[in-house]
Design goal:
By secondary structure, the protein is mainly alpha-helical. The protein is built from seven helices and two strands; from the N terminus they run αααβααβαα. Helix 1 runs antiparallel to helix 2 (45-62), helix 2 runs parallel beside helix 4 (107-117) and helix 3 runs antiparallel to helix 4 (107-117).
Length: 205
């Protein structure tokens, strides 16, 4: 019969909590993304924005270092505001609902940037172990797919889809590595990998 020492059990409990946080983080991000996009598509932009704000607030509240994590999300918000407003003002994206000014993207779209940033120190933490070139490739591939999915759901439209998605791909190839670097400096979650407790504390039979 296998018997674990107390440190081993503590490590197992810690790993379980970390995995639970990662899964919860991923699911909340998906919930926020769909709430924003579907809210924008079906005329409920404020509802989508509210859902995103609640998730972002909860994420910061749960962070062991709320100041560092809040700084990361604030920087992501600023980057999103600038980038999405450039895309909007240049006519590269047209939104169905939620746009107050012609040259500024809707709030729900801007909030998706800090919403995405909530994953950088949890469910997307693995990107920190990749070389910057691979992070850039991931940004260039997956970001346009997300924007395309938004257009298919009716939240956004493009006059010239190829041009718009190409600009988005190039921008995200630069912005995603920058966001990952920022998350390394501003890590409000203490989920760095630890040595296996089983190796450090042998089992006793």
């Amino acid at each position: 019969m296998v018997r674990f020492t107390l440190p081993v059990l503590q490590q197992i409990d810690q790993d379980f909590e970390v995995n639970k946080s990662i899964i919860t983080n991923f699911l909340l991000f998906q919930l926020g993304w769909f709430a924003c996009v579907l809210g924008g598509a079906y005329g409920y932009p404020l509802l989508g924005s509210l859902v995103a704000l609640v998730i972002i607030t909860y994420h910061c509240y749960r962070a062991p270092d709320i100041v560092q994590e809040s700084r990361l999300l604030l920087l992501a918000l600023i980057v999103g505001l600038i980038f999405e407003s450039i895309i909007t003002s240049q006519g590269l994206a047209r939104y169905s609902n939620g746009q107050v000014l012609d040259f500024i993207a809707p709030l729900w779209m801007i909030l998706m940037w800090p919403l995405f940033a909530t994953t950088l120190n949890l469910s997307m933490r693995w990107m920190k172990g990749l070389a910057p070139i691979f992070v850039a490739i991931a940004g260039a591939v997956f970001a346009p797919l997300a924007y395309y999915a938004g257009s298919q759901l009716g939240a956004v439209s493009y006059d010239d889809q190829i041009v718009s998605l190409s600009v988005i791909a190039i921008a995200w190839a630069l912005l995603l590595p920058s966001l990952v670097i920022m998350s390394m400096k501003l890590d409000g979650y203490n989920t760095s990998p630890v040595k296996s407790a089983v190796k450090e504390y042998p089992q006793h039979v």
